[in-house]
Amino acid sequence: MDNANTPYASLEPGLILDAIEQLGFPCSGRLLALNSFENRVYQIGIEEAEPLIVKFYRPQRWLDAAILEEHQFSTELLTHEIPVVAPLAVRDQTLHEFQGFRFAIFPRQGGRAFEVGNLECLEQIGRFIGRLHAVGACQTFQHRLRLDVQSYGYAPYKFLLEQNFIPLELQANFRNTVEGVLEKINEIFQQIGEVTYLRVHGDCHAGNILWNQAGPQIVDLDDCLLGPAVQDLWMLIAGGTAQETNVQLQKILRGYQEFHHFNFRELHLIEALRTLRMIHYAGWLAKRWEDPAFPLNFPWFNSFAYWQQQIQHLNEQKVLLDQLQGDTYLVTMD
Q1: For residues 170 and 250, is the Cβ–Cβ distance under 8 A?
Q2: Spatial CA neighbour of 196 closest among 144, 154, 127, 134
Q3: Which of 25, 84, 166, 252 lies 20 to 30 Å from 91 when distance is taken between CA atoms?
Q4: Catalytic annotation, residues
Q5: What is the tens place of the pLDDT at every residue in 172-190?
Q6: pTM
């Protein structure tokens, strides 16, 4: 089996097709690699049938129990008629194993990407996320991450320092910047008060929403976790002026509240969550840097200029967080 640095070295076409065929699917031999870095995802041609999508999970990332919670959440959403691309149950199982690789099979779904900022679609997407969260609030996760300052802030920050990713000349500046930002984010969470954590998509950006004639359909619940509801809303905002942002939020929340209660205090978490995502993303790239696919596809990462830019961006976020006075996202519902 491959080591943690090159986990997919032996995931060759023959193994992929054998994994599908041992479940009873006659493969045509057509195999197309799809855009995915954390896992490996392929479209597989099936004789006299529609192609299937197979996702090979990154070894050593999730426990089986965490993957099965993702699958259970998808299935639960489908039972409530919430459009989601859920794994297929084959021989009464959704998680399979072949020669050390765990994988799941999904139906192929068509559609176009959601257009961020499209006001005509935002209210509909708000209703969709509201329905998803209404189901997400019914149970909890036991084996998946909780989005907080520790998991998305301090943990990746510690990894970056311990693995010597930060150039020596920038370490003091990086430490001061990140620690100042995380301290401010802690303050913001404390000022807001109790935040309800529920099962959310976790990575709800336009690329993970397919749009067809029936409306939106969610894909890729690989990063689902326990988080505040606003985590699934803020990445759907195109930005712009404060007025434009508030109009977009108003559209989303009008639809959302038809199906689920929203705590408006969470709007003041948006910039904090955006900042945590920046730190988490840098840590994610660092953890995967010895996987050959990452230097090839992210050549700009881990250069001196990159870390200088990260420090600059985090300092800008720190200024923005310092300026927040509780009315940055003042949404008035008609």
Answers
A1: no
A2: 134
A3: 84
A4: 203, 220
A5: 999 999 999 999 999 999 9
A6: 0.93
